[in-house]
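Sample intake sheet
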Amino acid sequence: MKNIIKTVLLVALSGAFITGCGEKQSQQVAKQDTQTFKWNLVTSWPKNFPGLGQTPEVFASLVNDMSGGRLKIKVYGAGEMVPGFEVFDTVLSGTAQMGHSAAYYWKGKIPASSFFTAVPFGMNAQETNAWLHYGGGLELWQKLYKPYGIIPLAGGNTGLQFAGWFNKEVNSLDDLQGLKMRVGGIGGEVFKAAGGLPVNMPGGEIFSSLQSGALDAAEWVGPYNDLAFGFNDAATYYYHSGWQEPSANLEFLINEQAFNELPKDLQAIVLTAAKSAHANTIDEYTAKNSANLAILLEKHNVQLRAFPPELMAQFKQISLEVIEKMAAEDDSGTINEVWQSYKTFYDSIKPYHELTEQAYLNNR
């Protein structure tokens, strides 16, 4: 009888313990479901600037809607909290939990970062996305930023960019000698090797620099963004034969500590919203570039030009030499690691796209 009573008591106590644990877990889940977070996101673009400035706004809106308001993200344009070129350090410090920018702005700090924005004569947007998400590119990118406590994610792609605005016609390398041009990343290094003088500056400073003569030329993005900045009022010739940024990939930067403090469901929401905003950007640029080019040509009488094939061939050769030299001279080995991954993937998909995408474009 005593044994029976003892067994009943043990069962009752066990049930009470399990019930208590279940209630505690339910309370924890409920607390998690109601806990709210507020993040700041700083960008390298003017607030609400077409395309570039809209991508972080789309992202923040998606996060708010998918989280039911549990994670609210306030977006700051360049200069509102920090200057456009201070986004990386601001996210690193935790002053802002996120940023939106272009990786090649940090080439002074992380030389290999330029490969995650654009490689002259390299992959287009579709191919770059494939390398990042299925070819190991994103893992290398995150490995590169890991020492800084920052998680990078693809944050939009503008597609192939125009070659830029010039105040004189360019027909040969001789026309580039001593030419001051706003051009960033690896494209800037190639322009320098070709005899030009590359200048890196935020988009908001380009117009006044062209007007004052501080710049002789500038590349930014393409018709959608170039018309918004009014470059047609500051330069005469618009070159469409882009080579320097065949795929202008943007980035979201996330402070790793802040990300780790989020519940798993909010982490998943951040990652999903980033990928959605990334995909939306190329759609926006594809639609808006053509419409804005028509305005530039028909309303503003912009003089459209193309570089001669001989000059493009020289740019291509110089580009390869510059990249190979960068990889060889980098003591850390990171540039070579990223370049070999990029080049291997590019070489593997290029023949297929020559048979499909390129052949179709030629035929149509």
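Comment: Confidence is low (pLDDT under 50) at residues 4-14. The first helix runs from residue 2 to 34.
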